[in-house]
Amino acid sequence: MGVRLGLKLFLGFFLIVGIAAFFVMRVFVDEVKPGVRQAMESTLVDSANVLAVMAAPDLKAGRIADGRFAAHMATAQRRDPRAMVWRFPKRSIDYRVTVTDARGIVVYDSRGQDVGRDNSRWNDVYRTLRGQYGARSSPGAPGDADSTVMHVAAPVYDPDDGRTLIGVLTLAQPNDSIDPFITASQRAIVARGAWLIGSAALIGLLMTWWLARGIGSLSRYAKAVSAGEPVPPPKPRGDEIGDLGQALETMRRKLEGKAYVEQYVQSLTHEMKSPLAAIRGAAELLQEPLPEADRQRFAANIAQQERRLTETIDQLLRLAEVEQHGWLQRRTVVDLSMLCRQLAEDAAPRLQAAHLSLHCELPGHANVQGDAFLLRQALDNLLDNAIAFSPEGGRIGLRLEAGQAGQAGQAGQGGWEVVLSDQGPGVPDYALERVFERFYSLARPGSGQRSSGLGLPFVAEVARLHGGHACLRNGPAGGAQATLWLPSA
Fold it and tell me: Over 171-205, what HEC string results?
């Protein structure tokens, strides 16, 4: 099975953001150390030049080792700054100051270690003595490459003319004194980078879910349409996915509409042939001289066939209306118990005319979600069938009870079951599987006439729209038993 589109989108988005964030973080982390050291070097340059000016009088007078400059430096070395620099305490002065004469010989060292040493070959002193900027970074101790010290030199000029070079002042600071700041900066960048990647992943996940959800709904809709299942159109969206969904729905309606019209034209043409042939034959005979009794009989036959055609067309229009809706246009809470009571009251004249009785077993309330008008029409069709197939003086039962769905995909779902039973001849075995086909009907026991064959298909379609089902079977004590099951609200 291939990788799902949503996972591909997420992995692609995360890969792009992750690689970009990784390289950006690497650049920032790699630049922190040299950046901080460059800032420290710039500060050392300023400080070295200030100290060089302050040391010039004592260096020219030959008292650089025990003059005022040396005393001030010794005092500064003993100071405790008591500073808190970005969460790191600073309790000592890290500067080391050395002064050489014009030959590069050390004449002053704030730590008293290298006095008399020849530093003229060190890069800081060597370049400064030649009028250039001198600086170097050397190990703090011989062989210790991990602990380096930055040295920045400044020329010491004769204080009288300001041009004659009389020495070099070197200001040194251990690089490890700024290592905590470098480490903290790098950790902060990594932490914020991790938040960036996490936030990007979350945004990517949400965007992927949003896109995959829209595409998934279109995919499910297309599969349902291709399988011939009733499904509502995709929800409107203000983007290309929404436009695609509307285009698919429009295409579906056009294709289904074309097939629907072709199918119904064929069915209607087939059903109209028989009554039209009867009307044509009776009309031809009425053009000839006939006895009054025959004329009345043929005229009545024309009227009867006309009623049959009208009933077929009306029923077909009602069925077409519900079949064209893949979902309910109106959905409210409907009390089936009250609907059945109203049905019984309205059917009283028809029952009385047919010399039939209706016995109802109805609970106080039975709520379902649906369209009350369509449900009323479906129940009316079932009652009409029961009246048509009941013998004179017969009894029709109308029962409403809670029941579980028995069809696949609905098993275990709670609902309400409307059961209409009669005492007629029942349904022949050969017709049980066909009673819900359009235009299929059985002859009425008394008159031998057939209906349009559209009433039960209408009931089945209404049940489908409500998420239920309808069935017709023979009762255990004889007669037919029609059942309409609907999910409870």
Answer: EEEEHHHCHHHHHHHHHHHHHHHHHHHHHHHHHHH
